[in-house]
Amino acid sequence: MKHLKLKNLLMALVAITALMSCHKDKNDVAPTPTAGIFVLNQGKFGGNNGTLTYYNYADKATTADIYASANGAGLGDTPNDLKVYGSKMYVVVNVSNVVDVIDPKTAKLIKQISFDKKQPRSVAFYKNNAFVTSYDGTVSVIDTATFAITKSITVGRNPEQLVVSNNKLYVANSGGLGATPDNTVSVIDLTSLTVTKTVNVILNPVAISADAYGHVYVISNGDYNTIMPGISIIDNTTDATTSQNTVDVGYGSPFVVNGDFAYYLSGTGKVVVYNTKIQVISSANFITDGTTFKAAYGLNVYSKTGEVFVSDAKDYKSVGTVTAFDKSGKTEYTVTTGITPSNIVFLN
Amino acid sequence: MEKLAFGINIKRNYYHDTLKIGFAIFLILFSSQLKAQQDTTHKLKEVNVTSLSAPNVQTIVPVQQISSADFSHYAALTVADIAANFAGVNMKDYGGVGGLKTISVRSLGASHTGVLYDGVVLNDAQNGQIDLGKFSLYNVQSIALYNGQAPGIVQPARSFASASILDIKTIRPQLTEAKPYLISVGANGGSFGLINPYLQWQQRISKQWSFVLNGNYTYANGQYKYKETGDGSDTLAIRRNSDIKALQTDGALYWAKSDSNKFKIQFNYYNSDRGLPGPVIYYTTASNQRLQNHDLLVQSAYEYIAPGSFHLLINSKYSQNYLHYTDPDYLNNAGGVNEHYMQHEFYQSASVGYHILKNWEVSYSSDAALTNLFSDVYTSYYQYAFPTRLTLLNAVASDLNFNRWHFQANLLSSYIRDHVKNGVAADSKSAFTPTIAATFLPFKSSGLQLRAFYKDIFRNPTFAEQYYYAIRPRILNPERTKQYDIGVTYQKSFDGFVHDVAITADAYYNNVHNKIIYLPTRSPETPSVTNLGKVDIKGVDVTLKTNVIPAAGWMGIFSLNYTYQQAFDVTSPDDSFYKNQIPYTPKNLINLNAGINHGIWGLYYNGTLSSSRYYVSNNTAQYYLPTYNVSNASLVYKILANKLPVNASFEVNNIFNERYVVVYSYPMPGRSYRLSFQITI
Q1: CA of B590 vs chain A CAs: smallest distance (Å)
Q2: So where are chain A's domains?
Q3: How many angstroms separate the CA of residue A109 from the nearest CA in chain B?
Q4: Which end of chain A is more exposed for a tag (fewer CB within 10 A), N or C?
Q5: Residue A320 contacts residue A24 (beta carbons within 8 Å)
Q6: What distance in Å separates residue B292's CA from the closest CA in chain A?
Q7: Where are the domains positioned within chain B?
Q8: ipTM over cut 0.90
Q9: Overall pTM > 0.90
């Protein structure tokens, strides 16, 4: 009798479970990207929830995580860089220690390159090679045809972004994980693939970019305390630092060069426009319709249209947004992304 | 720069299947003791039936209690496994023998649960949360959960200062001159490479003096298989770096002239070394982080109750918590993270009660605590604050019985002041916070009772929230909670098939404001910890407990706890998650415990059913965690072997091998086995 009762209870429990377990489908059906925007979302650090959002221009539809939809697997933890080279897209996934090579037309994974324990951060390209910085103080050279790592070049501590200019590779050595940050940029000769010079810049350099006038711009975070963030400029012929100025620039802001203008985020999330030809700030805020952000984080410019895209990481724990501004600085539309949207890439 | 890993994000895990030894022991045990079974059967029958006593649920605030006699019904290893069964409790379990386990009561957050260890609140000033997985059950007499606070009014002021209280009471010798000692030796082992021997020695020294000493050692490799689908592999992976070695020793010396004039001094020392497996991160190898803890607690209590009028309670405590955290994979130029933390607390409390009338007692309690934290965390741009915190708490309370009414109220005054060696100390804080509670018996001896309570309380920012990597001073206010509860209880004993029934149903509304939120911003210039959050919680807790005697010599127990919680984030209508359920909070949660015992055998089932949850603030499909249903069973065998009580049990956790997570990326173990054996002399 008591056994019967117990059995009934178990049955009831099972029934309740069945009722409660109407699983929601986690994966949307992967659309075929035609023309639109990819947004890389870092997710929570250590949260293993980096995602790749896709926004399609034609039907204005958003796919929350096109990588997961196309591959049936997540990106991993803290994807930190997204770039297109030729017909392929590269995702550098920092904490997961991989570089994913993706077909942007399908979002399908072509090759996953392991960087175990190296903590890869950023990627740049030059003549069929991909160059990947890792927090272990190296730049790895990857053959873009075979995806094999052909060489590892030792640079400074905790390198972040890197840029090619005048047949040289400039690597920002942040030293950001150490008790004392670094303050150098390593210059790598792209023929010999060796470090030829180490240039001093403002403490804790992270973002790096180059214009068509021989300037390499380095954005440094300073020490968060007494040394303020600023921009150092390196001359790409002499490889000497020509200026180091404390500037109102947001921590970790990208520096995006588009023709004669460069864009970066100020400490309060304004989009500052800098004239690279005459080396002056041409606008304190590109945005003209009064739009503000909770935590302006990523930035990119679509060169075809002059549109500016700004991502808002909000509280870094819930979903963010990317807002598109037309070339006059007025809001066109806003797309909901994943957690901590950082990189914006255009698919033509 | 992602170094702002907050405090120490304690991440760890579990162990896997090595039940071969277990089975061997089990078989030996059975064959040798089947004979002994027959002649002791009818003796034990009587013992079992007479020991049936239902804990009182008709208290002024909701109380749920499980005592040591019933621990074996839950296939439990630690206090966490027991506490998870209470209605209104949401356990955050990072999985595994060494995995962090904390409880949030009625969605208020784990930092709002005060943990009482023999009457004195345990304090973790750094992280504000007590890992209940650290407490083994061998020395525990009972575990109770109080919503609001404990029902009595003569208690330390700090006991009034949490939104809810988990009360752990240790075993106290009850020995006679004829048998002045009691020694229990036992061991526990099974899956995850778990080996867990323990010893308890209770001794009566004289009519007034006695002591108890406990020691237990836990070792487990902690490995277990889990199924990973999120990386596309769809195979069974093994959870690694989840080993633990822990030694817990504790003891107490008791002096009692009578029940109303007694003193005790006790200590508890916990020493552990464990791997922190961290979250499962796709495509990369396991973490190599490790954590060592050395926790020492020494406390004393003196209680004097004069007949009819005066009641005095004095508590003193010293505690230290040492923590050593290493991560060799962290790519700084020092070759990894190597951090040490040391917390000290000096605590003194005095509480007096006085019966103005026979049915009216008033009390006053006054507490002082001095807490500090040392650490060797530093960078060129940040120096550790070395905070010292003085907490002064004073409470007045009143308890009045009037006709069929029972009223209780107290007012707590808090004053908190910080001192720092580096940087800027937080402003001092003071507040008055009340609690009011009442019960009413609508009909005489019907077994029905109505109750209600209101409590307003706060928690101060922890040292981690206030100072950890606070390169700029953080302006933080205490996180405040308000609780409104109304409930009905029914309790009755019968002579018949149903021996007793206890039913409680409470509906509550809570809100949290100034919720302290950690923002992992990349810009340390803006505070990374803010007071932004607001949460509105509406919930229902229902408990049903009954003991039945279906036939002579048989006894059945049945206990069902149900929790409904709607916990909405109402921080701002502008948020994308406005009015979404807060992370990790199931709407429906059911805990069921049922069993039957006959003579020397007992068979028990324990199940938890949790509805789906979301692991971030947004309730969208992407961040969905599915429902899970976990069942445990225990087979308990109790005999007298040569007049010595012998207990053996075989426990299966997660019988149906459910693959699930409580915390995203922290997979829980599948089916596991444990065998335990104890002999008392």
Answers
A1: 9
A2: 1-30, 36-347
A3: 12
A4: C
A5: no
A6: 21
A7: 2-31+49-680
A8: no
A9: no
Instruction: Provide mean pLDDT across the span B69-73.
Output: 93
Position with higher pLDDT, B227 vs B589 = B589
Give me chain B's average pLDDT, please.
89
Please tell me if residue B623 touches chain A, with a CB cutoff of 8 Å.
Answer: yes
For every residue of B301-337, DSSP letters joined together read EEEEE-TTSEEEEEEEEEEEEEEEEEETT--STTSSE
- How far separated are the first and last CA of chain A, in Å rounded? 71
For residues A202 and A222, the answer to whether their CB atoms sit within 8 Å is yes
Q: Do residue A112 and residue B382 have CB atoms under 8 angstroms apart?
A: no
Candidate from A2, A76, A339 with C-beta closest to B283 = A76
pLDDT at position A14 over 80: no
Residues of chain B contacting residue A251, judged by C-beta atoms under 8 Å apart: 522-525
Cβ A16–B382 below 8 Å, yes or no?
Answer: no
- Using a CB–CB cutoff of 8 Å, tell me whether B486 touches chain A: no
Nearest to B99 by CA among B365, B283, B341, B280: B280
- Closest-CA distance, A347 to chain B, in angstroms, reads 24
Neighbours of B352 (CB within 10 A): 16
Residue B258, C-beta contacts closer than 8 angstroms, at least 6 positions apart: none
**Mutation for testing the A interface, residue in B288, B375, B523 having most A CBs under 10 Å:** B523
CA atoms of A161 and A82, how far apart (whole Å): 12
Q: 66-95 in B: which are within 8 Å (CB) of A?
A: none
Tell me which CATH code domain B2-31+49-680 carries. 2.40.170.20
Q: Can you give the three-state secondary structure of B362-423, one letter per residue?
A: EEEEEEEEEEEEEECCEECCEECCCCEEEEEEEEEEEEEEECCEEEEEEEEEEEEEEECCCC
- Count of Cβ atoms closer than 10 Å to residue A167 Cβ: 11
A36-347: what fold?
Methylamine Dehydrogenase; Chain H (2.130.10)
Rg (CA), chain B: 25
Token pair 């309690």 in the structure block, residue: B365
DSSP notation for A297-347? EEEEEETTTTEEEEEE-TTSSSEEEEEEE-TTS-EEEEEEEEESEEEEEEE
Q: Which residues does chain A have within 8 Å of residue B594's beta carbon, measured at their own beta carbons? A: 6, 9
For residues B149 and B161, give the distance between their C-alpha atoms in angstroms, rounded to a whole number: 8
Please tell me if residue B30 touches chain A, with a CB cutoff of 8 Å.
no
Q: How far apart are CA B249 and CA B270, in angstroms?
A: 7
DSSP structure string for B588-657: EEEEEEEEEEETTEEEEEEEEEE--EESSSS-SGGGEE--EEEEEEEEEEEEEETTEEEEEEEEEESTT-
Distance from CA of A36 to the nearest CA of B (A): 21
**For residue B623, which phi and psi values (nearest 5 degrees)?**
-115, 30
Q: Is the pLDDT of residue B292 over 50?
A: yes
Across the interface, do A26 and B609 touch by the CB < 8 Å criterion? no
Q: Which residue of A lies nearest to B608 if distances are taken between CA atoms?
A: A13
User: Is B53 a residue whose pLDDT tops 80?
Assistant: no
Burial call B538-554: b when 16+ CB within 10 Å, e when fewer: bbbbbbbbbbbbbeebb
Residue contact A252–B522, C-beta within 8 A? yes
Of A117, A177, A297, the CB nearest to B332: A177
Chain segment B543-568, per-residue pLDDT in tens? 999 999 998 899 999 999 999 999 99
What contacts B475, CB < 8 A, 6 or more positions away?
B527
Tell whether B380 lies on the interface with A, counting CB pairs under 8 A: yes
* Cross-chain Cβ contact B626/A21 below 8 Å: yes
For residues B301 and A3, which has the higher predicted lDDT (pLDDT)?
B301
Element (H, E) at B212: strand B209-220
Q: Which among A48, A224, A251 has the least Cβ separation from residue B281?
A: A48
Asked whether the beta carbons of residue B617 and residue A318 sit closer than 8 angstroms, the reply is yes
Structure tokens, B564: 């409904």
